[in-house]
Specification:
A three-stranded antiparallel beta sheet has the order 2-1-3, with no helix packed on it. The protein is mainly β and 62 residues long. The longest helix is centred in the first third of the chain and has 7 residues. A hairpin with a 5-residue loop joins strand 1 and strand 2. It has a single domain, classed as Rubrerythrin, domain 2. It has one helix and three strands; from the N terminus they run αβββ. The termini are far apart. Bound molecules: zinc ion. The site of zinc ion has 8 residues, from loops. It is found in: Nucleus. GO terms for molecular function: zinc ion binding. Pfam families: zinc_ribbon_6.
Amino acid sequence: MIDALLAAEELPEEYRDRCQDILCNDCGKKGTYRFHWLYHKCGFCGSYNTRVIKTDTTSCFT
Ligand SMILES: [Zn+2]
C-alpha cells in the first residue's frame, strides 16, 4: 500500500537526487536511501519504523 503511494508520488526536482541515512528501529540496521520527507523504508526488513539520522544535501548518485 505505502509502496504504491511512494511509486506514484513525484518528488520536486531539487529533492530527487538527495539521500538520507536511515536507521531502522525494527532490525537496527543503517542504510542510505533516496530522500523522502514522509516515508523511509528499511531496505533490509521492509519496515517503515525508521528514523532519519542524516540528510545529505548533495547528490549521492553521482
Ligand atoms: Zn529494518
